[in-house]
Amino acid sequence: MLPAAPAPINPAAAAAPAAADRTGVVLTLEAVGKSFGDNHVLRDFTLDLHRNENVVVLGKSGSGKSVLVKCIIGLLRPDAGRITVLGQDLATLSHATLDELRAHLGFLFQSNALYDSMTVRENLLFPLRRQWLAHRRAEEAELVRQALEDVGLADTVDKMPAELSGGQRKRIALARTLILRPEIILYDEPTTGLDPVTAREISGLIRSVQQKYNTAAFIISHDMDCVRLVADRVALLADGRCYAQGTYEELAHDPDQRIHEFFV
Amino acid sequence: MLYSPLLAETGAIAQFTGRFFREGFRPRYEVREFLYQCYVVGYQSLPMVGITGFIMGLVLTLQSRPTMAQFGAEAWIPTMVGLTIVREMGPIITALIFAGKIGSRIGAELGSMRVTEQIDAMEVSGTNPFKYLVVTRVLATTLMLPILTLLADAIGLYASYVGLNTRGVTTLALFTNNILSGLAFADVLPAFFKTFFFGFAVGLIGCYKGYYADNGTAGVGQAANSAVVVSSLLIFILDLLAVQITGLLGFN
């Protein structure tokens, strides 16, 4: 049974970080390692994500951020360490159980990954029907309508992805992620390739989603504007490790040159 | 060392084939997507296959007629054309057209989905992309090509009848009777059965090339191109094998 339909989100009203109730840990990364041949992308990466918290992993291009998020969603298998999502160790899950777990995870791809042979409606219905979450057509239509209203694009339901702008495609991808009401959303570079205004709107939307649905978000980014707007906690990925973590303000005033260079 | 990439590719295709048989017949069955692919692969190929079959039959008749006339063997044209189209020309021409149209389409479609992370998105949505994309397409090509070949054969034979009547008068009944008297089940059945293998090869190679495409948009073009080249080559190799096997069984 899905949660009842909440009120539409207003992205513009989402500037300040939420005063969140952060009790349970929903995602744990313990000494995660991943190599491609001689290239050791991740080594001993350790980090927790709490319920209703936005954690941004900050790092330079090529530092292994996307590899990290793909390990969490199960698209890549880490060579070392342990990843626990909603209490389940990913390494021990069968394909079927992993698919069930993925119903509680959302993943916003950097490239949006909208199915370009399908309309916006079909894009949104695809995960819904695959996870057997809605059986009645009326219920499906209501979920699609609400997901699109959440991202402010209710009028695009019959358009093809190619007819949309970059920012609109990002919003539709977010709507497709939201339609399953995930407990954790993983964002891979959500503002990359967008103009500054649209990037700020997407950042506001990420914050709004957290406030409205009480989701936890694991966000990969190197856009400092986005980091400032959405992060409850920032973790710095360097040399494959979690080099430092803290609030945006704490890290911004850290004297360590390696941390400071991100904030100048 | 020179042959190692070829051997590696052959091994990878063999593994891909093994995965098709392992995963293809276990639930969940993607019936809806399979039917849609049958429509795309079969129904939407009809015009191309029909035109090709018609031209094949017409040209074969018009070109063979002068030579046959020199030997006073015009009456044998229906039999000769019937045997040629049913045993070899129909299956091989249809399969090659099919490889060009459908093989490239599948290679480009799946390649594009791979490089834009749509296949990953499918997996994240709790869908097995191999079942949804590969198994449905390979089954559709395997089942649709034989049907298309039968249609191309029929259209080609009718075109031959039209070709004969451009320079003379032959009744349809006599033409049909001549063709059927020259054909045995040993001509028709092996030619029909080999088209299942041709269709399987086109679907499998198209899916393999697309599914493992990389290198951005250049990789998509490369996947579409090599899907056609490799599947066309494979069709000829399978045809050669089919001739050898039917020869061993005494059908030639």
Structure description:
Chain A: Keywords: ATP-binding, Nucleotide-binding, Transport. Chain A: It comes from Hymenobacter jeollabukensis. The complex is a heterodimer of chains A (264) and B (252). With 264 residues, chain A is α/β, with parallel strands linked by helices. Chain A folds into 2 domains: 164 residues, P-loop containing nucleotide triphosphate hydrolases (Rossmann fold); 63 residues, no CATH class. Chain A contains 9 helices and 10 strands. The radius of gyration of chain A is 18 Å and the shape is globular. The N terminus of chain A is likely disordered. Chain B has one domain. In chain B, 83% of the residues lie in helices and 0% in strands. Chain B is built from 9 helices and no strands. Chain B is elongated and about 70 Å long. The model of chain B has no long low-confidence stretch (mean pLDDT 92). At the A-B interface, helix 2 and helix 3 of A face helix 4 and helix 5 of B.
